[in-house]
């Protein structure tokens, strides 16, 4: 590439997520944690064994005993061991403290965010040479990544020359003075393109 007149690839540096916006990955980024890292309720409601809700309707609800057949939980709560679905609170009628009626059946793993549903530990999150967006940074955070290998930003010097050039805001302007604005414009473009 250098023989073709192109600049060499910039070396790698490690930056934290809060400093990575707009940078370019220097190597692939892999998940260090699964997301979610446990089976989680996706809805407020009752954790159940799906097979115990078969045939449930509003006309013929299925009665379940709280604690032994049904466990109340909120969105994001870990699924209790032995339970494989969540009945949304809208489809649950509380008879008393120990009994609920289920008004709709659920399939296994319905309304459950299973371990690794979004990302699995060791899964590729981002490829090499990828420009980082806010969404990418969120995915990295969810995957347990706190630092990212990125390409160093190239340092670019802008040196305007000419006796006729004057700084913006110079007053009074004399005939022959030219306000030097290119360096301001070029510096902004260089920053947008990933340079310093």
Automatic annotation (TrEMBL):
Gene3D superfamilies, sorted: MoaB/Mog-like domain, Molybdopterin biosynthesis moea protein, domain 2, Molybdopterin biosynthesis moea protein, domain 3
A single GO molecular function term of this UniProt record: molybdopterin molybdotransferase activity
Matches recorded under Pfam families: MoeA_N
One BP term from GO: Mo-molybdopterin cofactor biosynthetic process
Residues of the MoeA N-terminal and linker domain: 10-144
A single cellular component GO annotation: cytosol
Family annotation (PANTHER family): MOLYBDOPTERIN BIOSYNTHESIS PROTEIN, MOLYBDOPTERIN MOLYBDENUMTRANSFERASE
Protein name: MoeA N-terminal and linker domain-containing protein
Species annotation: marine metagenome
Upper lineage: unclassified sequences, metagenomes, ecological metagenomes
């Amino acid at each position: 590439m250098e023989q073709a007149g192109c600049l060499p690839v910039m070396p790698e540096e490690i930056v934290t997520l809060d400093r990575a916006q707009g940078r370019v990955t220097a190597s692939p980024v892999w998940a260090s944690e699964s997301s979610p890292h446990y089976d989680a309720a996706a809805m407020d409601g009752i954790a159940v064994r799906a097979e115990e809700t078969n045939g449930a309707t509003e006309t013929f609800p299925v009665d379940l005993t709280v604690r032994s057949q049904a466990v109340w939980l909120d969105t994001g709560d870990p699924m209790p061991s032995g339970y494989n679905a969540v009945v949304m609170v809208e489809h649950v009628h509380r008879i008393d403290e120990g009994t609920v009626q289920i008004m709709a059946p659920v399939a296994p793993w319905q309304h459950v965010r299973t371990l690794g549903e979004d990302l699995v530990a060791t899964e590729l999150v981002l490829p090499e040479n990828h420009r980082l967006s806010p969404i990418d940074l969120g995915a990295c955070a969810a995957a347990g990544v706190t630092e990212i290998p990125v390409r160093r930003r190239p340092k670019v010097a802008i040196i305007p020359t000419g006796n006729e050039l004057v700084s913006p805001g110079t007053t009074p302007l004399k005939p022959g003075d030219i306000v030097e604005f290119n360096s301001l414009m070029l510096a902004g473009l260089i920053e947008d393109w990933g340079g310093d």
